[in-house]
Amino acid sequence: MQITVFSLLVSIFFILTFFYLVRCFLIVFKPKNKFIVWFSVFFYILLIAFGFFGNRLTRMQKIALPEYFPQIEWISYVLLGLLLILVTLFFVADCLNIIRRIVYYFKRKNYIDELKKPSLEGNIHNERRRFLFSIATVVAFCLFGRAYNNARRTPNVKNVKVPIEKLHPDLKSFKIVQLTDFHIGITIDKEYVERVVEKVNELNADIIVITGDLVDGYVAKLKDWVSPLERLKAKHGLFYVNGNHEYYWGASGWARYMEEIGFTFLENEHRLLKIGRSLVVIGGVTDLQAERFNRSQKCSPKKSIIGAPKLADLKVLLAHQPVTAYDSAELGYYNLQLSGHTHGGQLWPGTWLIHLIQPFHPGLTLYRKMWVYVSRGTGYWGPPVRLDADSEITLISFEQA
Known about the structure:
The chain is an alpha/beta fold and about 400 residues long. The chain has helices at about 1-30, 35-60, 70-105, 110-115, 120-150, 190-200, 220-225, 245-250, 250-260, 290-295, 300-305, 325-330, 350-355; strands at about 155-165, 175-180, 205-210, 240, 265, 270-275, 280-285, 315-320, 335-340, 365, 370-375, 390-400. The two termini are about 50 Å apart.
């Protein structure tokens, strides 16, 4: 039901966007033949919708799509990224135009009388509006170029220091690399993964963790693209928990595959690591949506610490969604929770809106004596664009509080 509702909402968005773009481009270009604009925008939206809904049909295994569909899907998601930026900038231009008209109204007492005249004044207002929308179009294409480049480049390493009370001396050089929200598939392929692996291996981490949303596709289709992760090197192991997207594409299959290539899959459980004379607990939970797909895999931070030593020197929980902290912090056990999921909003103005939707913001937050680190993600979801929320490879180290 949720998938159906989501698809319906997206369909409404595409329909409304179609009419809005037609209006805006008619203002910008003032074509003699308006049919050209109507047809061009219709074909543009149709191509985006074909890629988007084709991907969802693939997930539900409803139809067999042609071999060349991945290429169309790639183009579709690139155009979707441009569409989102265009709509945002046109909306900003509309707001500025409304503000300008309001200011003009209060500055001119005879404004209403002037509007009644089919005169030069009306043409001036139309030309100013056209100027605003033309500027918005140019800026949108420039921002799209920047956003595309930000998304496709190799993520930068973000250094995060977590203060821990009574930190064991042997953990002062302990390093965790967090990767999350890769979303391999559609536009993130093997070459992108290889670049990330190469950069991560240079960091000489003690452990490497992946905190969910690794893929957007089934194992049979994407395992070759995911396979470079097998070359990741860490002194004390590789750990993986699933996110909500794994459940769309066969979570159990991906769990088995990740174990085949050397990862320890944590399903509401933990592992103990001996680091020098210190003891480290690495716990991991399933995604909060897991119960929708398999009741036996309900997210349970409480289960993850069954049998775990209370006096361990460092306790770290891997949980895809940051709000898992509401349950994990109540345990009074973990020092740190590593999460992703939000992408930091990925694309402005989503980078602002995410602060209204998500209680845990990107970065490090102290919640009820437990630190929660929320990564902006190593890849991106959907359109290959990132604006005001760069992707990251997170290098986590610890210091005395």
